[in-house]
Structures are given as structure tokens and as C-alpha cells.
């Protein structure tokens, strides 16, 4: 957490607000380009061979590659990830969300060049397979990391699978994890590198921003005691069981709201998902 705080103090003003909107906009531009001329996608791919031979625009244009060529699926994807992205940005803050997204992009580029270098050394030169590395690297894996991050932040939030079946994010993430594992073993080395680098971004970000002292015996005991204290029944007007200490909203105002108690505040203060990470901690002394 310290390194992120230092970076934010130094470069926080450079963070791009609503980054997910720009990302979806890039997908949309790529979709339009594909509809106009499908062959142009070949000029956008993250191909280390072509980049090393002067086509440096590919370092950026691979972000424009559409995640799907079907308009309906693209619209569903855009709506879904817009909701995930905006919620994560409100939760983490603009700078941290920027670090997460751009970090994933950087790891993806590094992964492509690392794979190219390994294959070059093993084959003693450039092969046809090396020219096709770019087909395995796309923003699909950036979306994957956004989904996993959201599932970790809000595991009990429900979404409608296929707009019909209610399911919690943690179960979707579990299924997603199984599919990722299957894809990892079934795909080629380029696909494996792309999957690994996207997950590397997710793992590094979360392990480096979480305080591992929370797992010490003293801290575990303190948290267990805190949870026991929170089990005491309480109620609010209209029969509501949860109420945000900042905005005053309850689950009756919006059934999709998630509520959590803050362990850093002194007293029984509960917050909604919009204020859990942004409120000022309450101290009695």
C-alpha cells in the first residue's frame, strides 16, 4: 500500500477519470474498423515481430481490437464492464484504478515480447508461429482482471446471468477460474503467456495492497470479536436492517446496495458500498 500511496501523491493528478469509458470507446472504434475493413485488424495486433520492424503503433493499437465482432455481445459486454469499472473506480479511487488497468496492459506487452524472445532463442530464428503471437493477446484478458477484481471486492453482490438467473459474483468468479484453468492447459504457449500475465497483474496488485498483519493471531482474534459484537440485532425505520452512516440509505432505498461495518471506526458504524472505502474513520478520542 505504501508504494501506491507514494505514487498517488506524486502522479495522482495525471490519473484519467472514467478510464473504463475510454477503454470501451477503444473497443467500439475497433469494432467499427472491423466492420469497414476486417483485414485492418491485422495491423492493430500486438505483434512483437512487426513492432521490432518499425510498426511501433501496435504498442497502442492492440487495445482497439474488439473483444467481439457481434454487435449484441459487444453492447452487453460494454454495459457490464462499464458498471464494473465505474464501481471499482469509485471504490479504489481514480489513480489506483488507472494503475490496475495500465499495469495489466504493461504486463500484456511484456508477456508478448518475453514469449517472442523465448521462441526466438529456442527456434534459432523467426518462425510462422512467432508471427501469429499477436492473435493471442487482446484486451479480453484486461476485462478478465477487471471481473476478478470486482468479484473480490463484492463477492456477495448478485447479478443476473443471461438477464434471468440471479447469481453471486463469488460463484461466477469460481466458474470463471475453472474456465481460465481449462483454457490455460488447452491453448498454446502464446495463450498461456497472455493468461498468466493478466493474472499476474491481479495477484501483484492485491497482494501488494493488502496488509498481511491482518492474519496475525492477535488481529484474527480482534476481528472475530468485532464480528461477534456486530451480530447484536438492530433495526431502523421501516424495518430496515442496514443503514449507511454517511448517506443514510438503507436496503429499502436500493435492494442492490451492499453494506459493511468498518473495523477501523470506533463504534458500530455501517457503510454502503459507495462510502465504505471513502468515509472518514470515526475516533472517540
UniProtKB/TrEMBL annotation:
GO terms for cellular component: membrane. It is found in: Membrane. This is Rhomboid family intramembrane serine protease. It is a multi-pass membrane protein. The chain crosses the membrane at residues 12-36, 56-82, 94-118, 130-152, 159-183, 189-207. It comes from Roseburia hominis (strain DSM 16839 / JCM 17582 / NCIMB 14029 / A2-183). Keywords: Membrane, Transmembrane, Transmembrane helix. Its main location: membrane. It comes from the Bacteria. InterPro entries: Rhomboid-like_sf (IPR035952).
Amino acid at each position: 500500500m505504501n508504494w501506491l500511496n507514494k505514487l498517488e501523491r506524486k502522479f495522482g493528478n495525471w490519473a484519467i477519470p472514467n478510464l473504463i469509458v475510454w477503454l470501451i470507446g477503444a473497443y467500439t472504434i475497433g469494432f467499427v474498423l472491423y466492420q469497414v475493413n476486417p483485414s485492418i485488424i491485422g495491423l492493430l495486433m500486438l505483434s512483437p515481430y512487426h513492432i521490432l520492424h518499425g510498426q511501433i503503433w501496435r504498442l497502442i493499437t492492440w487495445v482497439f481490437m474488439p473483444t467481439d465482432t457481434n454487435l449484441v455481445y459487444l453492447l452487453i459486454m460494454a454495459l457490464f464492464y462499464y458498471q464494473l469499472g465505474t464501481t471499482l473506480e469509485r471504490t479504489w479511487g481514480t489513480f489506483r484504478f488507472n494503475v490496475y488497468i495500465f499495469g495489466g496492459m504493461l504486463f500484456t506487452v511484456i508477456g508478448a515480447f518475453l514469449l517472442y524472445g523465448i521462441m526466438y532463442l529456442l527456434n534459432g530464428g523467426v518462425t510462422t508461429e512467432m508471427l501469429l503471437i499477436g492473435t493471442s493477446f487482446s484486451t479480453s484478458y484486461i476485462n478478465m482482471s477487471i471481473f476478478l477484481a470486482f468479484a473480490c471486492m463484492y463477492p456477495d453482490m448478485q447479478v443476473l446471468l443471461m438477464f434471468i438467473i440471479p447469481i453471486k459474483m463469488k460463484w461466477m468468479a469460481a466458474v470463471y477460474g475453472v474456465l481460465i484453468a481449462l483454457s490455460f492447459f488447452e491453448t498454446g504457449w502464446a495463450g498461456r503467456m497472455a493468461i498468466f500475465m493478466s493474472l499476474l497483474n491481479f495477484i501483484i496488485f492485491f497482494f501488494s495492497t493488502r496488509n498481511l498483519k491482518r492474519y496475525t493471531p492477535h488481529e484474527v482474534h480482534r476481528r472475530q470479536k468485532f464480528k461477534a459484537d456486530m451480530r447484536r440485532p438492530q433495526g431502523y425505520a421501516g424495518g430496515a436492517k442496514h443503514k449507511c452512516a454517511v448517506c443514510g440509505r438503507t436496503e429499502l432505498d436500493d435492494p442492490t446496495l451492499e453494506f459493511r461495518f468498518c473495523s477501523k471506526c470506533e463504534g458500530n458504524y455501517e457503510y454502503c458500498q459507495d462510502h465504505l472505502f471513502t468515509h472518514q474513520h470515526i475516533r472517540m478520542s
